C-alpha cells in the first residue's frame, strides 16, 4: 500500500534547463509534504517542504507546488546544475497532535535525477 | 563532531545470526527513527522513539527490536537475520513535531547471506 508514489524512477536533463520531479499521494489526511535529496553513500538531507495551507513554496532554485485536489506535488529546479544529480524522495505526513505518539510519514520510492553538463 | 552517526558502515552476516546496528546523535533530539531503503520501496519506517524508554512500531517492524535507554542512542537489533533483511538502514532524528524535518545518518549497508 504505497500512499506516496513517484512514478518516474529516473529523469535526465541538460544543465541550465528546468527539472520537474513529480509525486502523487493517496491519503487525503496528509497535510505536510517534504522533499529530500540523497547523494550516493550518504543519508537523505532535507531540501524543501510545504504545508497543505499553501500551494507553492520557493527556496532559491527550488520550488515545490502542491495541488491538493489532484493529490499531486512537484519539485521544480531552475536552473538545474550538475551538483543537483541525486535521488530525490518525496515524503508526506499528517502533522500530529499531542501527545505525539504516532508517526504517519510515508516516503516515495525516489527519482534519480541526472543533470548533464 | 555534532550530528547523527551510524555504525558499522557496512556489515555482512549470515542467516540466523543476531546483528545490532548502532545510532548516536548529539543534538538531544527527542525523536529517533529507523528506516530501511529498498529498491522500489523508498524509505520504510521500522521503529521510532518519541523519547527515552518510549518506542513504537512503524510500517515494517517484524524481525527487529529496538531500545532507547539513553536519549542519544537508538540501537536496532535483528534477532535472527534473514536474507529479506538485506537492505540499507538509515537512522534519523527529529527535533520536534512542528515541521517533521528529519536529520539522517549516513546509513548502514547490511548484507545477510
Description:
The complex is a heterodimer of chains A (117) and B (113). Chain A is 0% helix and 51% strand. Chain A is mainly β and 117 residues long. In chain A, strand 6 (56-59) and strand 7 (62-67) form a beta hairpin. With 113 residues, chain B is mainly beta. In chain B, 0% of the residues lie in helices and 51% in strands. Chain B has strands at residues 4-7, 10-13, 19-25, 31-38, 42-51, 54-57, 64-66, 76-78, 87-94, 103-104, 108-112. In chain B, a hairpin with an 8-residue loop joins strand 9 (87-94) and strand 10. Chain B is globular, with a radius of gyration of 13 Å. Chain A binds chain B through residues 2, 4, 6, 32, 34, 36, 41-46, 49, 89, 91, 93, 95-96, 100-103, 105-110, and chain B through 4, 31, 33, 35, 39-45, 48, 50, 54, 56, 58-59, 90, 92, 97-107.
Give the averaged pLDDT of chain B, no decimals. Answer: 92
How many helices of chain A?
A: 0
SSE string of chain B: EEEEEEEEEEE
In whole angstroms, the N-to-C terminal distance of chain A is 38 Å
**Globular, elongated, flat, extended or rod-shaped: what is the shape of chain A?**
globular
Largest sheet of chain B: 7 strands, mixed
Specify Rg of chain B, calculated over alpha carbons.
13 Å
Which outline of chain B best applies? globular
The total count of strands of chain B amounts to 11
Strand content of chain B: over 45%
Number of helices of chain B: 0
Oligomeric state of this protein? heterodimer
Spans where pLDDT lies below 50 across 5 or more residues of chain B: none
Q: In percent, how helical is the residue content of chain A?
A: under 10%
The secondary-structure class of chain A comes to mainly beta
Proportion of helical residues of chain B: under 10%
Structural descriptors:
heterodimer; A: 117 residues; mainly beta; 6-stranded mixed β-sheet; 5-stranded antiparallel β-sheet; B: 113 residues; 7-stranded mixed β-sheet; globular
Which helices and strands, and how do they pair?
The complex is a heterodimer of chains A (117) and B (113).
Chain A lengths: L3 E2 L4 E5 L4 E7 L6 E7 L6 E7 L4 E4 L2 E6 L4 E6 L8 E8 L12 E2 L3 E6 L1
Parallel strand pairs in A: 2-11
Antiparallel strand pairs in A: 1-3, 3-8, 4-5, 4-9, 6-7, 7-8, 9-10, 9-11
Chain B lengths: L3 E4 L2 E4 L5 E7 L5 E8 L3 E10 L2 E4 L6 E3 L9 E3 L8 E8 L8 E2 L3 E5 L1
Parallel strand pairs in B: 2-11
Antiparallel strand pairs in B: 1-3, 3-8, 4-5, 4-9, 5-6, 7-8, 9-10, 9-11
Amino acid at each position: 500500500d504505497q500512499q506516496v508514489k513517484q512514478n518516474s524512477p529516473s529523469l535526465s536533463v541538460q544543465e541550465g534547463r528546468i527539472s520537474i520531479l513529480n509525486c502523487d499521494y493517496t491519503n487525503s489526511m496528509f497535510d505536510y509534504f517534504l522533499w529530500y535529496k540523497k547523494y550516493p553513500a550518504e543519508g537523505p538531507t532535507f531540501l524543501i517542504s510545504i504545508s497543505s495551507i499553501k500551494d507553492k513554496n520557493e527556496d532559491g532554485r527550488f520550488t515545490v507546488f502542491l495541488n491538493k485536489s489532484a493529490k499531486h506535488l512537484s519539485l521544480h529546479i531552475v536552473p538545474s546544475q550538475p551538483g543537483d544529480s541525486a535521488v530525490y524522495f518525496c515524503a508526506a505526513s499528517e502533522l500530529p497532535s499531542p501527545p505525539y505518539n504516532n508517526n504517519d510519514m510515508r516516503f516515495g520510492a525516489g527519482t534519480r535525477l541526472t543533470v548533464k553538463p | 563532531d555534532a550530528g547523527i552517526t551510524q555504525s558499522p558502515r557496512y556489515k555482512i552476516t549470515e542467516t540466523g545470526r543476531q546483528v545490532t546496528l548502532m545510532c548516536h546523535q548529539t543534538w538531544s533530539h527527542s525523536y529517533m527513527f529507523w528506516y530501511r531503503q529498498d529498491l522500489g520501496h523508498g524509505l520504510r519506517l521500522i521503529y521510532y522513539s518519541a523519547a527515552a524508554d518510549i518506542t513504537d512500531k512503524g510500517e515494517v517492524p517484524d524481525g527487529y527490536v529496538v531500545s532507547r535507554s539513553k536519549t542519544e542512542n537508538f540501537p536496532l537489533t535483528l534477532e535472527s537475520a534473514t536474507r529479506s533483511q538485506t537492505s540499507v538502514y538509515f537512522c534519523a532524528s527529529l527535533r520536534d513535531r512542528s515541521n517533521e524535518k528529519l536529520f539522517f545518518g549516513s546509513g548502514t549497508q547490511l548484507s545477510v547471506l
